[in-house]
Each structure stands twice: as structure tokens, then as C-alpha cells.
Design a protein that fits this description.
Elements (H helix, E strand, L loop, with lengths): L1 E6 L10 E11 L4 E7 L2 E3 L2 E3 L6 H13 L9 E14 L6 E14 L13 H5 L3 E6 H9 L8 H18 L4
Parallel strand pairs: 1-6, 2-7
Antiparallel strand pairs: 2-5, 3-4, 3-8, 6-7
């Protein structure tokens, strides 16, 4: 799995005090459309943080079931890309202060024509509060959203930077460049 690193601290990941591990899905249908989510004004691919003692793959299977209502298994996941972001002065969730943060996000490609299954979606309190919405869109359309997305969410720059890199790597992978 290829790794792309953004290091604002330039001291390496071991010096960043808070590490967050995430898994995200690139769920492509036959028309090369993918699911994208809008969460708190930020566009992201479906997925999320690992729970304690959870593997990246197990977390992704759980997250996709919760957010999209789609059941997956390990055989459905094709490892694709790892993006590390070592961020200086990342705004904490409570908006009180900052910390350095090291985020490792592993992306997996999943080939599926499945639709959202709203009867099986189980949103967290935060996802409901921030009105998580997920829909299918082409890769170029997703890239356009990242350019046209002004938001007051200060974390958006990090999410957008990552999403653009992932989508451009996906285009290369699919021979669309």
C-alpha cells in the first residue's frame, strides 16, 4: 500500500503526541461513481476512526455498515492508499485549544453497486447532530466539490487536502489521467 505523508511539524510521526487511526472506503459502482459524505460541512469518503483493538479492516466493515447500511466482509476490501497527516496546532473537537496530531488513514477500494440501505443505518449522536449525508458522485464531481466548498469548519483544509490526493491517486489507478 502506497503511503503519502503531509508533515507540518517536520519531526516525524513519533513526535506528534496524539495519533488517530482511520479507515475509509472508495466504493465504486460500474459507472465509476463513489459514495461521498458531507459531515459538518466537510466532504469525506465513508469510514471513520478505529475503536480500541480494532483492525483497519474491521473498523471499515463496521463503519460502512453503520453509515451506509451495507454489509461487507474482508474479501470485499482491496487495500489502496495510506495517507498520513502530521498536523501542527490542530483545533481540538471542543474548540478549546490545539494539539499536534498524527492521523493515519488507510483507504480501501470496494467494487459494489449497492445502494444506501437507510433501514440499517445507525448514526452516532455526532453524525446526527452534524447531519451526515452520503450520496454517489463521479470522481470529477467529487473533485469539483472540494474546490467549491467554503466552510467555517477549520479542519476542512486537512480533509480537503487528503480527499484531493486520494481522488487523484484513484484517477491514476483507474487510468483516467
Amino acid at each position: 500500500m502506497k503511503t503519502i505523508t503531509f508533515d507540518e511539524i517536520e519531526l516525524g510521526g513519533s513526535s506528534a503526541p496524539k495519533q488517530i487511526n482511520k479507515a475509509r472506503a472508495i466504493i465504486l459502482n460500474d459507472e465509476q461513481e463513489l459514495f461521498i459524505s458531507n459531515y459538518a460541512g466537510c466532504y469525506l469518503l465513508p469510514g471513520g476512526k478505529l475503536d480500541s483493538f480494532e483492525s483497519f479492516e474491521d473498523a471499515l466493515i463496521r463503519e460502512i455498515n453503520e453509515e451506509l447500511g451495507i454489509a461487507l466482509n474482508h474479501a470485499d476490501l482491496t487495500p489502496f492508499l495510506c495517507v498520513e497527516q502530521i498536523i501542527k496546532n490542530y483545533l481540538k473537537n471542543d474548540d478549546f485549544g490545539t494539539n499536534h496530531r498524527h492521523t493515519i488513514t488507510k483507504y480501501y477500494i470496494i467494487r459494489s453497486n449497492s445502494c444506501l440501505n437507510s433501514t440499517n443505518i445507525v448514526m452516532s449522536e455526532a453524525e446526527s447532530k452534524h447531519q451526515l449525508k452520503t450520496f454517489r458522485i463521479g470522481i470529477e464531481g467529487a473533485l469539483k466539490l472540494t474546490k467549491e466548498n467554503p466552510t467555517e469548519n477549520s479542519r476542512n483544509a486537512y480533509y480537503q487536502r487528503e480527499l484531493v490526493v486520494v481522488l487523484n491517486e484513484l484517477k491514476k489507478h483507474l487510468g483516467q489521467t
